[in-house]
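Ticket #4471: complex job returned nothing on first submit. Input attached below:
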Amino acid sequence: MADMCTEYPSLRERTQLVDQVGLRTQLRERFGFSDQDLSGLTFFQSNKRLVSVIDKQHEPEGVDAIQTMGIPFVHANMVIPKLSSAAVFLLGARAKKNVIELHRVQVETFMTRQPITLKADGLSGCMGNGYVLVRHQGYTIGVGMIRFSEQLNEAELESYFPKVWASKSETVFPC
Amino acid sequence: MNYLFERYKEIIDDWDAFSAALLEPLPTCFWANTTRLTVSELTNLLRSDGIPFQALPWTTNGFRLGKHIPFGARWEFKTGLMHIQEEVSMMPVHVLGATPNHRVLDMCAAPGNKTLQVAVELGGKGTVIANERYGSRIPVLRSATERLSLPNISITKRDAATLPERWGFFDRILADVPCSCEGNSRKSIRKLGRDERGFKEKLVRTQKQILHRAATLLRPGGRIVYSTCTYAPEENEGVVSHVLENMKGDLRIVPFILNGVSFCPGLTEWDGQRFSPELKYAARFYPHLNNTGGFFIAVLEKL
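Support reply: We reran it on our side without changes. The output follows.
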């Protein structure tokens, strides 16, 4: 049978396409991730628009026909990086700033992708407008965008919870 | 529904109990994503919301819901802190015995529940290759990988029966092969009509090719778990016996234990056909034994 596989450029080549220092600096400045938090991970360009992440011990050598490697991490070439939901699930527990804790009712709103108005007084850990990690009971549940309104002493949280997970009410693949 | 399975009447220990179990809905089972939180942290979250559940006896990370609720709508599921999976479907990965230093291959991965289980057992580290022949099934696998945020999985698209040797050896291989899905009848009877002769013969041929390929890609000392969700001996003992014979003693079946779980030994003969005596170490799971779906598991090691 003819070999129909497609070649996947090497992980090393794809790793070199990412500004590793720049990305790590942005992550440290915005969310307080230390180099140690990121030490077990390799960032690589998975396509023109996306930087993905894979565990450093992952060994796909010899394996072809790869469709996806690791998980999406951040959109490439953005001035301010917007982390994917998978990325914040992976690293969110280690974030030290720009983190918002929601209570139960707010979680339901966040997961249906509706905006949430928050009192600015309770957002001392946020450094102004920009992307934030969202937690509930200490567990990271997603990423959002916060915009402060100084006049009203409040802020609006825009939900970036993925549509595909927001709409699911039950898994249909239990086997 | 039991009329669909009449031909197994003589090998099922309690036909009435089997028939009655087929009419009952399957319980919902789940496990914690221990790369994100501990098992006790998950159970505390659920208890604090008054969710009734009980621990499965054979694993430290598996639970059965005490009532039917839309569990997939819970925030812990949507954010990847836990995953829903049928109990008997969790067992193959448990007996696979993968550890973080293992290179693992899941040959027929979609929808991906077992892939996720393995990746979590490896602590989100190392190498899991999740292969799926059909591109249309890959998005489901990819989405689940992202929801559980597992950075140790590569997804490939190839025919499992022809995976190339250049992929290298694997320490653990899961061959959860396509099958006639008879054991899923408590969930869906959609697929059960396809019992025409040509379909079954083609299926068995594919299963043999996949298991033989698994044996080729397995590192000596490594382990394969061959599993199906069907009762058909042709797809279970017949396939394993065929490959054992072809491998001329390089492969053997090893027994396994699942605490608190009842199962029947694999068949050593069926319909006038004799299988390898080692098949007695394989396991047949019938719905009435543990209130699960039907399943077959054989654990094979390469000498």
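The two ends of chain B are 43 Å apart (CA to CA). Closing as resolved unless it happens again.
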